[in-house]
Amino acid sequence: MPEGDSLHRAARKLQVLVGERVGVETPNPRAAAAVSAATLDGRRLEAVEAVGKNLLLRFEGGLVLRSHLRMSGRWQVVERGAARHGQPWLVLTGAEREALLWNGPVLELSARGTRRLGPDILADPPDLSTMVANLRREHRSRELGDALLDQRLVSGIGNLWKAESLWHARLSPWLRLENVTDDELELVLSEAARLMRSSLEQGREQRVVYKHAGRPCPRCGARIRSRGQGDDSRTAYWCPGCQRGEGPRGA
Ligand SMILES: [Zn+2]
Question: Where are the beta strands (DSSP E) in the chain?
Answer without folding.
Answer: 23-25, 45-51, 54-59, 63-68, 74-79, 90-93, 97-102, 106-110, 225-229, 234-238
